[in-house]
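During the first year of the project, the team set up a workflow for recording each protein of interest as an amino acid sequence followed immediately by a discrete structure-token representation. This format lets reviewers and collaborators read both layers of information side by side without switching files. As required by the reporting guidelines, we include two representative entries from the current panel. The first entry is reproduced here exactly as it appears in our internal archive.
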Amino acid sequence: MEYVLHESPEHPEQFVFYESWKDEIALQEHLASPHYQEYRQAVEALLDTREVHRLKKLTV
């Protein structure tokens, strides 16, 4: 797993949090974990919007 936080230079109030997971099973286990559920509840009121984009890494 890898977490990378990005901030927009033009809009410092906008952030992108990039996560990379070993596989779908690892991601689903994380999403079901108690610490993740607690995090989601704790930050919900702090977010204007939340968008999730699932991407596939390409190798060349």
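The second entry, processed by the same pipeline in the following quarter, appears below.
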Amino acid sequence: MPKSVIQFFSERTSFALENQRKVSSWLSKVASHEKKSISDLSYIFCTDGYLLKLNKAYLHHDTYTDIITFDYSEGKGIVGEVFISISRVRENAKVYRVSFEQELRRVMAHGLLHLLGFKDKGKAEKALMREKEEACLSLWK
């Protein structure tokens, strides 16, 4: 089985992800839990403004968001890019009264879950997504 390539980048923010090896291992475990594997996955941590521009350009939404996921998968392995607004994650952590690290892991899992085929448009889909996010968080050790 080919080795997973999971990369982390920062765009227009000074944020740098700590424990990248542990995070990569956890993400691989999440995919494996869903009977999938990661081929090439990039997480790009950015500002609200940067993500807003992507949201307008590619999704035609003029709203701030915490995450946008681009799926490039064609075969069995997951290939994609996950853009995350560090500002939104910080704000959401305060709103939900969780640590920044926990909220960041939730959002990272959320993006991977989209790449694994889970949606969150309808009420039932949102409920399943939340359930899957919690399962992902429980895999963090």
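For the second entry, the following points were noted during internal review. The mean pLDDT is 95. The domain at 5-138 is CATH 3.40.390.30 (Collagenase (Catalytic Domain)). Both points are flagged for discussion at the upcoming steering committee meeting.
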